[in-house]
Amino acid sequence: MKILIIEDDPVQALNLKIQLRELGYSDVHIACCLDNVARITEHHIFDLIFCDIHLPDVDGITLLSEHLNVQITKAVVIVSIVEDSILQLTKGMCHQLGYEFVSTLKKPFLVEDLANCLHSYELHLDRKQDLVPSIQLDDSDILLGFEQNRYFAVYQPQFGFNSGQLVGVEALVRFDHPTHGILSPNLFLPHMARMGLLKDLYVLMLDKATSAVSSISRSVQLSLNVTQDLLEFDLCDITTNICQLNDFPLAKLMLELTEEQACNSSHRALANIARLKIKGVGFSIDDFGTGYASLEQLVDMPFDELKIDRLFISRAKDDYKHQQLTTSAVRLAQSLGLNCVAEGVEDVETWEFLRGLGVDTCQGFYTGKPMPITELLPLYRVVTQDLDQYYQDSQNVVIYLDSNSVRGLATVKLLSKELTGYNIMFVARLDDVYNTVRDLPVGMVVIESDVLIEMEEKDKIELSSVKQRVPSVALVKSESESSQFNFTMPHIVKAETLAHSAKLISEYVLNVLDSANAENTTPLSKRETDVARLLLAGFSNKYIAYELDISQKTVSTFKRRIFSKLGVNSIIELASVIQS
Fold first, then answer.
1. Rounded mean pLDDT of the chain?
2. Using CA atoms, how far apart are residues 389 and 471, in angstroms rounded to an integer?
3. Does residue 471 have a cis peptide bond before it, meaning omega lies within 30 degrees of 0?
């Protein structure tokens, strides 16, 4: 790493160089004035520059803004004895100028302070490396994702601060690329925007998310991100039709716009927002505090929710200014009657501070990372204290896989008449099974034997993966067929007629799923269930004691009792038992 120290005091410059060398950084240069800086930077590019604000011929602020730039270095540490407000102002200026990493060191500083600063820089480099789009996608990749149903949703839970209940989820898109694996949106959304496919993605995500969330509960709010460009299209009829098709209440749909997008909307976008509002759809100001909207603009927009940006939340517990800004945002939301959501809550201290402010909803890694629908469902049942209902509803989707579409569709039609209350789905390819299990809580997969006969080696591996993620998989075969399949699974013998076979399949499905319900009935008391749901929601013993008005010692006693009754030794095992 090549480092430049800009410091006019030779003793302090040499001391900093020695400290850097002790920390393992040996390629260090020193400049004491503007001429030195100009001469050195003419021939060298630096990874990191330490710059004093007070210099004899130019102040450090002018030096950083007019004589240095991001071609010379992308990272600066501002060193000075000036007051915090000036340091923060200079730091903000550097961010505006495009420096990727900006930190501060107040004189005098210890070697530990310097080491912490350098550690932060190294973490920045690690994160930067992770964000570098080493994966290069092209238009064919994007289109392949749509053709092969490779875009799917993960859901980040939102919990009420006062109730501890799961009140909503935000659906976040992912791309299951056949070569590169699971990709985050920053790798493919820019391509989609350029190709004019954001509307197609919205339709796909809305369909998947409303179908999945409605299978959990019609009382959970679903949040989706939209852009101002997307609102140029007539989304009202599309949104209404998809929600009706999936039996999802429009009043539980929240569309999120960033502050800047919301306040730069065209007349067409505003008209579409108004039409959706009439239908009951809510709108949220996302990343509040990062845009440049005036309060008057915000008051004029028909928002229902305000989401405070994670930039403020992450620093609220120990930074006075961010505490005040967060408090002001909460008070603004309360005064306008808006639901207030805190994003980026990652620890109990931040959670307790926000709860004390009266924030309505918590979203962050502290209460739950983005997760597939199969993990969200048991979490919802636990926190709503409705464990028995979970075992029933978690298995209400049954997939019938048959490579013969005529026979498969006819079988599913007959099964639907027998298995009322179940969602019976026909698929013709194993890939479709995998995608459905990814997108919906599937209780059973029933496979026509012809599929196994035609199956290639790669499909056998995929089927093994499906078997691990679904409670039950069964094979339908004739009595005369060989049983030499390389799979261990229960089987159902076909009858002479399709109608009779469908009755046998229906009886098998009901017997298996009813048995699973009976076996999984929780032996916990109501108070034990209360403790279990809070443990699984990630809350500490201290919070559980406060919430249930019991001592922390009593919480520990309940925890031991729950573990004993369910035969588990950890929270992870507890979650597994609840989901199994």
1. 83
2. 16
3. no
